[in-house]
Design goal:
Layout: E1 2-7, E2 12-17, E3 20-35, E4 38-50, E5 65-78, E6 84-97, E7 118-120
Parallel strand pairs: 4-6, 6-7
Antiparallel strand pairs: 1-3, 1-5, 2-3, 3-4, 5-6
């Protein structure tokens, strides 16, 4: 599955085990459509996780346009009130930075050794 959108806040890295880290970020996807002759816009927010390396977090900053590839899974939990809850998480396998903002750090900083899991376009 492929999603394209803007990162809404700088990515964070979380330790989940003594030797495992996950990079988390949220992407906003805008959809424009007409309804009853009126132009409308709808924004969907998608929580993403990236497990391959934490070195990419420094490039995944607020406002950056990205294209992510991966799959969705459900994440169930129980609220403080005892109510069953669930959310969707996008497990990211590959990230492509889009547009001129992908070059803002200059050079070739995106070689993370994870077999080209992060690409630049622009």
């Amino acid at each position: 599955m492929e999603l394209t959108g803007r990162i809404v806040a700088d990515a964070t890295v979380r330790n989940v085990a003594s030797d495992r880290k996950v990079t988390n970020f949220r992407v906003a996807i805008n959809r424009r459509y007409k309804s009853g002759g009126e132009q409308k816009e709808e924004t969907t927010y998608v929580d993403c996780s990236y497990w391959r390396t934490d070195k990419l977090a420094q490039y995944l900053t607020k406002g950056l346009l990205v294209q992510v590839y991966g799959h969705i899974s459900a994440r169930p939990w129980v609220s403080k009130d005892g109510e069953p809850m669930a959310s969707l998480n996008f497990h990211t396998n590959e990230i492509t930075l889009l547009g001129a903002s992908a070059h803002r750090n200059g050079g070739e900083p995106y070689n993370d050794g994870a077999k080209s899991t992060l690409k630049r376009q622009g």
